[in-house]
Amino acid sequence: MSMSLPKAYDPAQIEQKWFDIWEQRGDFCAHDDSPRPAYSIVIPPPNVTGVLHMGHALNNSLQDILCRWKRMCGYEVLWMPGTDHAGIATQNVVEKQLAAEGLDRHQLGREAFVERVWQWRQTSGGQIINQLKRLGASCDWQRERFTMDEGLSKAVREVFVRLYQDGLIYRDNRLINWCPRCHTALSDLEVEHDDKKGHLWHLRYPVIGSDHHLVVATTRPETMLGDSAVAVAADDERYRDLIGKTVMLPLVNREIPIIADEYVDKEFGSGAVKMTPAHDFNDFAVGKRHDLEFINVLDESGCINENGGVYQGLSAAEARQQVVADLDALGLLAKVEDHTHAVGECYRCHAVIEPYMSKQWYVAVQPLAEQAIAAVENGQTAIIPRQWEKTYFEWMYNIQDWCISRQIWWGHRIPAWFCSDCDQISVSIEDISACRHCGSTAIVQETDVLDTWFSSALWPFSTMGWPDKTLALDKFYPTSCLVTGFDILFFWVARMMMMGLRFMDEVPFKEVYIHALVRDAQGQKMSKSKGNVIDPLIVIDEYGADAFRFTLCAFAAMGRDIRLSTDRISGYRHFVNKLWNASRFALLNLEDFDPATSDLSVAHLAPAEQWILHRFNQTATQMNQALADYRFNEAASILYTFTWHEFCDWYVELSKQPLNGDDPLARRQTQMVLFTVLEGLLRLAHPILPFVTEEIWQALPGQRPNKSIMMAAYPSGSGVVTDAGAVAQMELIMAIVSAIRNVRGELDVSPGQKIKVLLDCNDAATVQLIRAGEAAIGSLARVEDLVVGVAIERPEDVATQVAGNVEVLIPLSGLIDLAEEATRLKKEIEKIQKDVDFFTRKLGNEKFVSNAPAAVLEKDRAKLLAAQQKCEILTQGLDKIVALQQSTC
């Protein structure tokens, strides 16, 4: 006996219920000793501070689709979950809490502050994990890891020490990106550049021994306090005689040289460039070449330090204003120009980044990068879509050493100790109490922590137990696939490649699928400031996780950004409702059906049954291929077309006659096919629509060997072999029905009005095929009088369509008044043409287009397009009516 389903589908009633059952039963758990082939994915660990956003929703929906699909295909699937400790972001969160209490971390001290962060993590951190579960993420949650847990900390220390011992980790005093708000170094990848409107100040530097001035142009006049040279191009005729001479640095009154260097662009500004090696990356390189003095004029908070003389204590912005005013007062400000330039900001707090001289820890990455490049070049790892390989190579071939030290307290503290007696550094996996070089106990551990990305670079193997040799590593490493966004291709993917090859001698993943961004309906990036953010949790509450997942999948075209709107999600909620209602119909007609006592005999199947089984096999084959190729949008489209247009619109309607008829054998065969296709369709749809498919599948009649649909076999496409002739017969019947429906639509014939149809066939065999399907044509096309024959007599006034080798003729006499219909269409066209003219004039107004908001323009353009399309359709209908009028004259 089958179970009935409620009339209305309510996601809230089933989604949490089924997720709890799956998780409590251990349905997501992977088994290290399983004989089944392995398929593994590591989750891109979301920040412990994070909440679910659209990027997470897309990324994890696609991973879940792959994992559920592979699980049903017979693989032992490990989807490794976890969160990242997010050093800077998490420290910022807790520091804000302390500030609200009138405290700061320095008052607490390092040990107490770190303990406070751990407390926050236990009580408030990681809420995104529960949010991912609401999405349906089938991770092996029992294995959840955290980049600061004991096992991963052990792996981090092991990697650091081995790289140091191999000479690939070193310390150096060089220019780095410094965040004056977070008080820490940042890598190049952690700096976001944004074009800002600013100024180009032209400053006069007096040339020593002459009455002349050398004019330099700068966007940061406050850094002149740390100038150690002025550079010009060697071939610049204006300055050739000045090379080797000196200028007096204004305000500071320090004599600095005039040098020639290839870096200078003589066409930019005045062609003379101030050199501040301690505060500009390009100047740093010039300073190294010319052995210039490196003068740091900023402190850790971005304020002028003791090297800035009277400006000490001013912020960079305040110093800029004062320096410019003082130069102007001295007559040394030549001019000021408006200038737009890229300004670097901290990717966490968005403070302006200062290039800053500091001693930091680095990884010499070139030897590691060479292996990672070769692994992609020789196909060990494929990056999909392929165009991202070029981006990967360009970055890897030009890679710079990686600054891995951060001046914060939350994170993996660098396992290095400084000895005050011998000035040597000791590194160790375990904490030490004496210098490894001289035995002195006068040692102090490095206060810096490692860049968050250092620990996440080890994620594919550290989460599986490395450096210990574990069954998980043997079974699931290298992982099968990584699903990620292009924005962390260098932050994370490249670094995992380097570390995996170095410490596991294998690539960390065989394929990397790079998905696009989720944007709003107008194609703009979602941001709180624009007010166009769509909250995934609100979407799930309103439409259900299944509809949301299907929408993301349907628009996840390879290499193309997703334009998302709640209207689209609402549209796919209708699709879920369609599946639900078709299933309710099926269950009502399967109440007396037991699949265990029924035999699917192809010989007794009607053409409609043969056709739907054939199409199901084709759909299953296409779905498997689309998922294997990461063409998620194609998979969704294939599933949508079969479910809505073929199973629901065609087969469910075709099944009503035998289900309600007097032939018990026909009824039993239709029940068997209805059950077989619906049960297979649910399995086919499960990876994308996990909740609704489980609920319906459990309601189906009969006993199945699996406790959950996710454990059932995924349809392969090699199901019941059907008869090609019967399939072709059904496709002809469907083509005839579609042709009749087209004519009815074009002539605006009422859906309830029954009509007469003549089918003129080429041969008697076709006549016989059609007569076998007369009942279907009559019910589906609302035909009460059907004439089928070869070379039949044609009435004078007919509408004509062609279906295969059959001419479909619909007599118009008594069906439609051609003159009246032509008049109606002309009036409708005139009405729509007014809309076309109105929006054409409006959008042709240059003043309106230049001043109107983008959203308004987009809306008006859409209205114009819709009106034009409607007008075109009505005009085509009128043309047909006029042609019919002429043919009857």
Automatic annotation (TrEMBL):
Gene3D superfamilies reported in the protein's UniProt record: HUPs, Isoleucyl-tRNA Synthetase, Domain 1, Valyl-tRNA synthetase, C-terminal domain, Valyl/Leucyl/Isoleucyl-tRNA synthetase, editing domain
Domain Aminoacyl-tRNA synthetase class Ia, chain residue ranges per copy: 17-565
Catalytic reaction equation(s): tRNA(Val) + L-valine + ATP = L-valyl-tRNA(Val) + AMP + diphosphate
Highest rank taxon of the organism: Bacteria
Regions annotated as coiled coil: 815-842
Record's subcellular location: Cytoplasm
EC number(s) on file: 6.1.1.9
Main subcellular location of this protein, as a coarse class: cytoplasm
Record Pfam families: Anticodon_1 (PF08264), tRNA-synt_1 (PF00133), Val_tRNA-synt_C (PF10458)
Domain Methionyl/Valyl/Leucyl/Isoleucyl-tRNA synthetase anticodon-binding: 609-758
NCBIfam families registered for this protein in UniProt: PRK05729.1, valS
Protein known as: Valine--tRNA ligase
Organism: Pelovirga terrestris
